[in-house]
Design brief:
The protein is built from 17 helices and eleven strands. By secondary structure, it is of the alpha/beta class. The strands form three sheets. Strands 1, 2, 3, 4, 5, 6 and 9 form a seven-stranded parallel β-sheet that branches. Strands 7-8 form a two-stranded antiparallel ribbon.
């Protein structure tokens, strides 16, 4: 008998994505039309409903924010409607581990009867944006989501991306979706209210994207390190915007916005960073872990013959000057089988990529290179180098 022949028809279509990324100050001042115009879009003939989910750290640092949101909605009540009082939730990485909170947020969407043309607005750091983005993307198979990032890290990196996710099964961002936001609204006033530690933390992503994509930006960061370390507003604003632009360009023009392939250039330094966050139970901020990951992979790039000697020290010196500590004892942690715990990060990364390892290293300052394997002995050598360097700095 002849084997049956499949009758196959291929479906093919393209869906364009386009969303605004706005930079402003005083977003919820009634005279600032940015938020209202964002909700209206091209549809100016209807009243647009929205809810706000607010990071508790932001509401504490900006005590007038909740009343400002309500006053703004009242001032523009002919065009927009706040469907319920703003919801304040715990921010930080713990929000991504809280199943009950996600269920609560889904219930709020149900109770306020939001349709797919309403808006779920998240105001907070990257962890909150990731969580609320996941809730918005999975309610009604997708409700319009507006991100209002309030940290350096969220404004210059995660806020302008197309991913969201939550932690599960001991892995960071194991559950999530690719769902571009409806809009991203960056208000510089939130940056001024940040604790110093969070201002520093977000600068790691600027160093990262400069190292893999823009040598001129890296040179600028070196020259302006003093102003950045003292949080000069003009320097901070330029750093945030340029970093966001480079991330947007990579996502939009890099050819793989939904990461269907293996390469993840924007994850330079992240295979180790994600593992360090887990090992320290998130005592390390994401940016702090990324800075260590950058230092580790910069040294590895030298040891593997990709990056010229001395460039690793130059990178580490900039990170130190910006305020980063490039060592944590978790780098030396071993599991019960005496295996180096950090190396599990490579295995997790490989699994996340679909089974084939692809790590971004440095070929030069401003130029990344993709490799498909890493030598564990060189990784351990790089860890030793970081440890010795830390001891010398402390002496």
């Amino acid at each position: 008998m002849n084997a049956p022949i499949a009758d196959t028809v291929y479906q093919s279509f393209q869906v364009p994505f386009r969303f605004p990324v706005s930079f402003t100050k005083g977003l919820f001042k009634p005279e600032n039309p940015t938020f209202k115009h964002t909700l209206q879009g091209r549809d100016t003939d209807k009243k647009h409903r929205f809810i706000c989910i607010v990071d508790d750290g932001v509401s504490a640092a900006c005590p007038e924010l909740l009343s400002d949101i309500q006053a703004y909605a009242e001032a523009h009540s002919e065009q927009i409607q706040l469907a319920r009082l703003p919801v304040v939730v715990t921010g930080g990485e713990s929000v991504k581990n809280d199943d009950e909170l996600r269920e609560h947020l889904h219930q709020i969407v149900v109770d306020t009867r939001l349709d797919r043309h309403a808006y779920v607005v998240a105001i907070g750091g990257g962890a909150l944006l990731d969580t609320v983005g996941f809730v918005a993307a999975t309610a009604h198979r997708g409700i319009r989501h507006i991100r209002i990032p309030t940290t350096v890290l969220a404004q210059n990196d995660s806020g302008v991306g197309v991913k969201n996710g939550v932690n599960r099964y001991g892995q960071k961002n194991y559950l999530g979706t690719f769902a571009p936001p409806y809009a991203v609204l960056n208000d510089y006033d939130f940056i001024e209210a940040l604790p110093d530690r969070d201002k520093v933390s977000g600068m790691a992503e600027a160093v990262k994207v400069a190292l893999i994509r823009d040598r001129c930006f890296f040179d600028w960061l070196e020259k302006q390190h003093g102003k950045l370390a003292s949080y000069d507003p003009d320097a901070m604003q330029y750093m945030i915007r340029r970093c966001a632009e480079l991330h947007m360009h990579q996502i939009g023009q890099g050819g793989d916005p939904f990461e269907t392939g293996n390469a993840r250039p924007l994850d330079f330094g992240h295979w180790a960073a994600h593992r360090l966050e887990t090992l320290t139970r998130y005592a390390l901020r994401h940016g702090e872990a990324v800075a260590i990951g950058i230092a580790l992979d910069a040294r590895y790039s030298v040891l593997a013959g990709h990056l010229r000697a001395g460039a690793d020290e130059r990178i580490c010196r900039l990170l130190n000057r910006l305020g980063f500590d490039l060592w944590d004892d978790a780098l030396l942690h071993k599991d019960k089988g005496e295996r180096w715990s950090l190396l599990q990060g490579l295995r997790d990364f490989k699994e996340h990529l679909g089974g084939d390892l692809c790590i971004t290293l440095l070929d030069d300052l401003g130029t990344g290179v993709e490799v498909n394997q890493m030598d564990e002995s060189l990784i351990l050598n790089a860890i030793d180098w970081l440890k010795c360097r830390q001891v010398e700095l402390a002496a």
